[in-house]
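DM from R.C. (forwarded with permission)

"hey, sorry to bug you on a friday — could you get me a structure for this? deadline for the figure draft is monday and I only need the backbone to look sensible"
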Amino acid sequence: MRTAFTKWGNILLTLLAGLTACSSPDPQTNVPTQDPATGEVYTQRRVVVNDSLIRGRVLDRYDSVLVDTRLQYVLQLPRRAPLDTLALGKLLGWDSTTVRRRITEALPYPGARPASPVRLRLTAAEVKRVRRDSADWPTLQLTRRYQRVYTTAAGAPVLGYRSTEAQSFYGQARRYRRGRFYRLRNGGVEAYYNGLLTGRHGYLHPLLDAKGQQHGTWAKDTTFQQGQDLHLTLDVKLQAYAEKLLGNRKGYLVALDPRTGEILAYVSAPVYDPATLTAPDRAGVRAELLEHENMPLLNRPAMLANPPGSVFKLVNAAVALQLGAISPATAFRCDQTLVSCVHHHPRPNSLTVGLKYSCNPYFYQVMQNLISRVPDSLVADTVAARHTNLAEWRRYVRSFGLDSVLGVDLPREAPGFLPTPAYYDKARRTRNWTYRSIYSLSIGQGEINLTGLQMANMAAIIANRGWYYPPHLVRGIGQGGPLPRFTEKRRTLIDSVHFAALVPGMIAVLQRGGTADASSLSNIGITVAGKTGTVENDEGDDHAAFVGFAPANNPRIAVAVYLENAGFGATAAAPCAVLVMEKYLRGSIAPKRKRWEKRIQHRATYDY
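My reply, with the result:
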């Protein structure tokens, strides 16, 4: 048996532990420099402060270690020699099915003859078995190395990976996805905070004379900084639970604490194990993920923007209240000649009733009042009035953090999109477009696109009655807090009284007769405020959406759920959201909803 030791990166202890500093040759060092005053020649040196850099850990909000640098054992199989899988299984304590599965997962595709030998990760117990019988297996090679190890199977798009450990994944991704590779690459917090996790060496820059005496410095000295731990905002148990609810379905779930902007759960579905992208024996699994039609490697909550559907009625109503286009008591007819309404309901004689039943004609007329109103200064030019009103609407909507990146601490966040008057001038090929040609904005369709982060933040803004902290995933760096920008409170252009006017309607959504009354948590004393959405989709089944927060009068969690091709928001998205709320607020699911919970998890497993 041969044992090789491979040293990776900057995480191994230095062999010169007894020294405090050592000189390091550098292209800029050992350069003679003449002092113009004395004419004496000095030599530039660069001295490395010799200390061991250890990469920081990643922990959840309750300090459970999620990612750490640990010793990992890898068994390398002979490249072309015949292999007795039955005997190998006996050696490792695996059954024959496990042996075949593990080898298949390590191959880039079934039946492949890899360019390098197959390598399998082993546990400490398995390593002990191999070493005990090493004399009987001279062709096996056991190696060990330090590598990032994941202690959880949840949170893959958040945790990410080190670029140096993901080179095999990069190579596969370029072959399988080519132009789409950029969209699939997501290093998570490992990449975003790489410098802080890694730390830095300290360097001294003395000027030395011929006798080795120092005469000042030729560059600024830098101090040694050990790699720092990241304390995430994630609740890893809530994260794992939320992933079970979405599973292999296509969509996302984002839950955050509206009081702080801290993200409690961040699910991009279909879900996968974070270790898959860097493990030496998961090439086959990576190939399946890359080829999957639902693109599980796409970081949906941050990078994918979709029409929000009826949940956007909340934003339009807030802007209309602010600009005086409606009041909380405004009534409209449910006029189906304007736009269809899929719900049978009483006449919407107030904003609360309009929200409760998600009446499309009601919000058509809300937006019509906004866009078609003609100020006295523009009474003779209705075209200019519409352009002015749309620009004003967009200015207020953008204050929600829409049509721009929120600045979450993940790579490549998408800004979403809100149309401008100039956009419609170009798209309609005329400045004389009318409200009728853009009315889809009133129900969150058409040209509006929001990300999952923006949807969850929208719910948080309403929960806070008009303000928010930028959503973020790291609450502490080392012994300090989050990045400074995540502690800066941001306010919308809408007065708090207008957000308060939305809440009764959102509560009514989950009460008897509301669009999501089946998802009420009133039986356990939790009042949920929410809004359902069903997004029309010309290319297949409709998408399901839901945003909400709980408890309604003292919000501690805000949730956004979006399930592609899942149908109605009330029956597909709302149940997932309220189960996550209940799990977070109570720690368990009430017996009344256990069967409901099991049915949702079954659908998530089999994607239907």
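R.C.: lifesaver. The chain has a mean pLDDT of 90.
me: no worries. The CA atoms of residues 404 and 415 lie 4 Å apart.
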